[in-house]
Every structure is written in structure tokens, then in C-alpha cells.
Protein: LacI family transcriptional regulator
Organism: Maribacter vaceletii
Amino acid sequence: MSKQRNITLKDLAKELNLSISTVSRALNQHPDIKPSTVERVTTLAKQRHYSPNLFAKSFRSRKTNILGVIVPNIAHYFTSTILKGILEKAEEKGYRVIISESKNNEVKQTEMLQTMTQFGVDGVLLALARKTTSVTDVLQILNRIPLVMFDKVSDKIPCTQIVIDDKEAAFNAVEHLINIGKKRIAIIKETENSFNSEKRFAGYLKALKEHNLPIDEKIILSTEDISLTNGRRLTNILISMKNPPDAIFAITDNAAIGAIKALNKFKIKIPEQIAVVGFSNSMNSTIIQPALSTVDQPGNKIGKTAVKYLIQEIEKPNEDVSIKTVKIKTSLIIRDSSFTA
Amino acid sequence: MSKQRNITLKDLAKELNLSISTVSRALNQHPDIKPSTVERVTTLAKQRHYSPNLFAKSFRSRKTNILGVIVPNIAHYFTSTILKGILEKAEEKGYRVIISESKNNEVKQTEMLQTMTQFGVDGVLLALARKTTSVTDVLQILNRIPLVMFDKVSDKIPCTQIVIDDKEAAFNAVEHLINIGKKRIAIIKETENSFNSEKRFAGYLKALKEHNLPIDEKIILSTEDISLTNGRRLTNILISMKNPPDAIFAITDNAAIGAIKALNKFKIKIPEQIAVVGFSNSMNSTIIQPALSTVDQPGNKIGKTAVKYLIQEIEKPNEDVSIKTVKIKTSLIIRDSSFTA
DNA sequence: AATCAAATTGCAATCGTTTGCGAGAACGTT
DNA sequence: AACGTTCTCGCAAACGATTGCAATTTGATT
């Protein structure tokens, strides 16, 4: 059961007693070719189910119409919504998408960047691996092909970046807690210099300051791995304090859900005694009891926007691409974990 | 800021006063080339950061080392774990992966199959769009390039398929419910002729029969869209019956979670009054209270296995590829929703 | 009928790499 | 010194498509 060979321009040309170039032009509606031959060529092409070898086309034009995407973890829900947006926009614009997972491994990340450029993708979309320390490899890529970053970015890399306004989003979330009457708001964040965590923390601080609330380091908790388990663990610490908080802002839904689980276990009333707000609007946030208030990040839009700017750079390389940081609007979704009638 | 051109064999050849072929052979450790020139070539290549144009290579060898993947929905958790497996195995074997979403749209699906073959991927991995009625387009592809299907498959397509044993998995789940003493087990399934739903239903029936339990059509409920909302809706129907079930088997975690939400609302004790078992081991299943018993489908393994067989077909096209259906083992995870000490 | 312009078509190069074959050089054998 | 091997290397074709330019045909004009 061997596979049938694709038919080429040459095949058509031979069968029609024409030159390859004439056949090519006939199929590309070049004005030079007389209508009758155009007719002959197109009918035979249809009959034989001719379809141009895109690979050969790409090879000649030095344009692959392929975008490379590198993300830390494809199975992360927020990431997958971004990918969805990327796929949609790319397809709409006639691009194919190669996806790779860096698994938060910096070495792998550079390897992937290299194979991608080596392979000849027209541009790369990149969400940095966590704790990416050296950006020199990325900078290398930058003067070879267009690059747009999203979600996990670094200001050390001069390229267009699509992000959400972490600081503002966190500010809004915390301000909401203040507005419902909370005065002692804890935060659960990451220790490592995570791009997002730091910005969200800044938003937290800003909200407290603007509302003249004291900042108490005892209720500013950090963890290396911002997981459900650690969210629960840190919440246990918070509720065993002599002066426990009346609200918890977790910079991740998972951690927030861990918090709720801990509070539920000790029958602490949410949101009356302690309110909880998370970040991401993951699937889980509506599953947990009570439903979690959280910041919605429009992944789809981020993906689409990233592709839009990347293709702009690809198709207009001459115009000096103004490097910009695009901030996608988030929205606070208020659910039972912070809702008071 | 124009991008720098990649350097080619020609460049190296000119600079070394050698022919392109010699340079090529030198870099590919061809025995014909004398050690001293190999030396000269390799050092210059390193110096100039030469890396072969993979696209040109592919073009010549007619081997792209690209696999195409088409799935209905990339943001579905189970699907994304499969993709993870696919990416891992593919990378390990030196293949790149192009991913497309059919969005359960049959027309899009065929379009994508066509662009992929037209582009020249070495093989395709396909999970069928729901309600795919006509498989003729897929059959068309089948005699052009290697194809392996997974998860959503059809027995009308003669190719290697990687699936889980839906029937057996469902059988085990229902038998488990019987073992903990349940005698009146409802099922929530899909109406449409979904490949998976029917098989799981068959497993349900088999378990009841083997244990001599009566089959009551009143507690066999179906829905077009097997969602959380519909799971809740149908459960409401079940608990308002004069003779309600003492267990619910939902063929999807989402529906099962909907069931739990409905039961919780009416303060029906889980699992004492009504036990619940789902299917998929999604993230949500540990978030809901009580934690959901469910069937774990090893997505990662499915993905890896699919790639393994696909590459086998690609690299040994002569040997008559024995078309086989590989069933990946599932395991029942027992949690609080069906646990009795 | 001769000439010229316009309409059609073909030649050949090109993209970057690999590879069969042949050519020339170096070396050893008699 | 003549011949045959063995080493090295370059030529040119090939993958499939596009395209500038030249070549050919056609038709029109005088």
C-alpha cells in the first residue's frame, strides 16, 4: 500500500505539451497566457487534482508562512486559550503554526528557538520559561527573525510584547476587597522574581496605600511554587495567627482555591469572615464552593493580538517597527467568595 | 533594522575556494574528503555560525519532518495532555508539530487535512470532529500520507487508532458502584451517536447484566451537549423521581460535577444516598466537594503512542503496516464521591 | 508582400542542499 | 616508465515552483 505521488507542474506540462512555465502562469492567471490554453490547463489541473507543492513555493519565496510558538506548558488552561487565539488568527491570515513546549527549561527554550529559525519560520511567538536568566540567546534570535512575546515577558528584550496590566488588575481586585469593607488583606504570591507576581504585588501595595491601609509584612506570604497545596498551607498559617486577615488575595486561582479549601475545612465563613479573590478565571473557579472571585485574562485576545503584531512585522519589515507593549484589558469577576449583598 | 541573511554552503565554498559539494560532504563527514579540508571547512562553518537550511533539506529529500495534528478543541484539558504527549515524543524523534483546531467543524477538518497534505507533512494525527458524518475526505488523505487517529475515531477508517477501552473503563466504574452496594445506578450520556458515549453505555449495560441488576430506561438519561449544566439538569430530574437512583454514572466529569452540584443543593448525601462517578479525571474532579471518583485516561501516553505508530508508518512505508487498534489502559480513581470506609 | 507590433510561449536561472559520476592528482607496483 | 589504485574533489542534475528575458507565432498595417 504505497502512497501515491503528488502530481506536479511538470506532469501537467508533459501531458499538455506545454512548458512548465506556461502551465504555472496559466494557473496563476498571468495575462500573457491566451484564454484557450488557460482553459486547457485549468481543466486538466482540476481533473488530476493538482495542488501546488507549498513546500517548494515556500522554498523559493523564502517565506514559509509558518509561525513558531514556544510556551512553557501547553496543558495550562490560560495558555491553551492563548493558543486558541493564536491558531484562529493565524489561520485567518493564512499561516500555519508550529508549537513547542519549553517546560520552563531555559536550555530547551533556546534549542527550540534555534531549530525554529533554522527551519525558517517567518516569526516567533514566545512566552518565556520561568526563571529565564540569560536573554542573550533570545536577543540573538531577535536580529534574525521577527519576534513577539506574550504573557511571560522581559523588559530586557526589545520587542513587541502583549501582556495584561498585572498591576492594575491586582489593584482592582484588592480595591474591590476594600470596597466590601475588608481592612486587613493578606496576599499569597511567589518568591522567585516572577515577572507577573512582582507586578501584581505592586498593585496590591498601591491599593492599600491609596486607601490608607497599613501594610503588614506578616500577612504577605510567598512560596516558590504557587500551587493549590501551597495556597492551602499558607492559608493555614494565616488563620492560625492571633490577628488573622479578613481577606486573602492570591495571585493565582490555584492558590486561591487552596485557600478556600483550607477555610472550608475550618468552617470559616467565606466571604463574611474571610473573603478570597484569585487571578486567572480558570475553569476551577466556578467549580469550587463558594465560587471564586477572580481576574479574567482574555487569553484568546492576547493570542490574536500577538499574531496580529507579529504578522505586521513580518509583512512590513522595512517600516521601522515601533516596539510597543500592548496591555490587554482584564476584568474582575465577582463571585460568591467576595460577594456581599 | 533589517534581518541578517542566513549564510549558506555557497558562502562557505566561495570563502574557502572549494566547491559547494565538497563543503557539503565535509560537513556530513563523507569519507571522500581529506581530513585537512574537513578541518578547514568545519572551523569556518563554526566561525560563521553556519547552520543548514532545514527547509531546503526537506525540500530536496521530500521529507519535512513535520507532523500535522488536528483536534476539535485545544483548550480541552484531556486533549491538551494528549498534545503534551505528542509534542514530547515528536521532539524526541526529531519531528516538529503543526497543530490545528477543527472546532468540531467537519468542513474545517477536511480543509485542514488538505492544507496539511498539500504542505507536505510527513504524517497526520487526527481526532475526529464530533458528528463527522462523511469519512470519504479522510479516506482520500489515507492513500496520500500516513494517518493515525486517536481519541475520537471511526471504525470506518482503516488506519491505526489509539484509544482507551471505553467499554471496559465504564464497566469497571459501574461495577465499582455495584461493589459498594449500589443497586439502582443511573447513567447520564450523550444522545448523538458519539463514538465514546455508545461504548461507555455498553460497558454500563454489561456491568448491570453481569451482576443481575435490572435495566431501567427511566434512569438512562441522554443529552445532546454533555455539559455541567446539563448534568445538573438531568440530575434534578433523577432526584425528583418517586424511585430515585442510588448512584449516578456520568460519562463525563463535567456532567458528573453538575450532578454533584445538584445533589449538594438539595443536601443529598454523597455517596451515602447517591454516589457519583465521572469519566476523564479532569482538574475539576479534585476541586469539587466531595472529590469526584472518575476514570483516568492517560492522555500523555495516548499522545506518545500515537506518535510512535505514526513515525513507524512514516519510516517503514514498505512493510505492510498492520493496521491495529491500540487500547490504552485506564484506571479507576476512587475518591469521596463513591467511597465508603 | 514586407514590416512591425502585439500576443503567446519557452528557456534558463534561482532558491539551498544532496549525490552519482567522472576527472585529476597522488601513490604504489611491476 | 608505464600502468593501475586509491584519494580528493568538482560538475551537474535534482527536488517543484516562479519569473525575467528571449524567442516564436500571430495579426495588423502599410
Q: What stands out?
A: Chain A has three domains: 9-52, 63-163+299-328, 166-297+333-338. The radius of gyration of chain A is 27 Å.
